[in-house]
Amino acid sequence: MFSSFRRSFSSTVSKLDTLALIESAGSKIAPGSLSTITAASQIGKPITAVVVGSGGESIVEEVSKIAGIEKVLQVKGPQYDHYLAEELAPLFKEMLSTDKYTHFLTANSSIGKSFLPRVGALIDSQPVSDIIKIEDESTFVRPIYAGNALATVKSTESIILGSIRSSAFEATQPSDNSAAIEQYNAVEAQNRTEFVSEDLSTSDRPELGTASKIIAGGRGLKNKEVFDKLVNPLAEKLNAAIGASRAAVDSGFCDNSLQIGQTGNIVAPDLYIAVGISGAIQHLAGMKDSKTIVAINKDPDAPIFNVADFGLVADLEEAIPELTEKL
Questions:
Q1: Which residues contact 146 (CB under 8 A, 6 or more apart)?
Q2: How many distinct helices (H) and strands (E) make up the chain?
Q3: How is the chain split among helix, strand and coil, in percent rounded to 5?
Q4: Strand 69-75 relative to strand 139-144: parallel, antiparallel, unpaired?
Q5: Tell me, what CATH number does 274's domain have?
Q6: Which of 34, 267, 296, 298 is the most exposed place for a label (fewest CB within 10 A)?
Q7: What is the pLDDT of residues 212-245, one digit of tens each?
């Protein structure tokens, strides 16, 4: 189904452990970080987890009980609370200069995408991004060309930096063991960037990136009123997360945090219902690994039907309320 090719970088691997960043949202471990630990365990080396920020105490004990982790480094300091890349990069540069680590992994989240290239520049190492499979400690598989091809990349850097696509790895589970917890001093970054504020949208629905069921709406829903009227009741009946195509987001139907696709969230739920989504290649790149794909669209020639397990050609304003009522 996919084409592949090989590419290599430079240097040699010879040090000891795998270092992994644990992100948190409030007092909870980010699901993507649990997938990162699963990926790190496949490298086959001891794993040292890093927890940063002034609120780390709320999760550091929980992190120490994650299967596969042998040590937890806690770095306290309010400068790390919002994961500013300008603060994180100097910290990880110092950690990686201690000759203790062969690998440094992070989730391919907005945080990972922000700071990992900076770390690579500081230590002169080419990062391998969006890893979906680990062949061995230096060989990785990652998608390219909007997911239409898979590249097998062999890195020979002395320290391998990688970001992990969360949907490609199961989240690791707690264990009976408890890893050692050590304090690590904050690093003076001489940072001139200041965090000002954030405006977070909250929802009682499952988190989009890790939800087992997703209802996604597209441009075929016409406007925000129709989007809310059709998608919200169906998602509520199924206890599903809500997503959207880029066209729907750009048209103002919903918040841009719900965008699924090459430039949005990458998801792989058990059930993905695409409502009024034509199926542009950029959108397919973000959801084609879903286990069961259901497409509902009035256009029988919509590309989304080429990847759907079940397809319904129907008027959305008739089909969706009927489906919701029957559920």
A1: 262, 281, 282, 284, 285
A2: 8, 18
A3: 30, 30, 40
A4: unpaired
A5: 3.40.50.1220
A6: 298
A7: 999 999 999 999 999 999 999 999 999 999 999 9
Query: Are 102 and 28 in contact, with CB atoms under 8 Å apart?
Result: no
What pLDDT is recorded for position 175?
A: 86
**What would the two tokens of residue 194 be?**
């200041």
> Count of domains in the chain?
2
| C-beta neighbour count of 294 within 10 angstroms | 18
Last residue of a domain, one of 144, 167, 183: 183
To 10 degrees, the CA torsion angle through 265, 230, 272, 239? Answer: 90
196 in a structural domain: no
Contact, 159 vs 123, CB < 8 A? yes
pTM as predicted: 0.82
Query: Which tens digit of pLDDT belongs to each residue from 60-119?
Result: 999 999 999 999 999 999 999 999 999 999 999 999 998 899 999 999 999 999 999 999
By C-alpha distance, which of 54, 43, 53 is closest to 19?
A: 43
How many residues in the chain? 327
- The pLDDT mean for the chain works out to 91
pLDDT at res. 147: 79
Does residue 83 share a domain with residue 162? yes
- List, in sequence order, every residue forming a beta bridge with 274; answer none if it has no partner: 216, 295
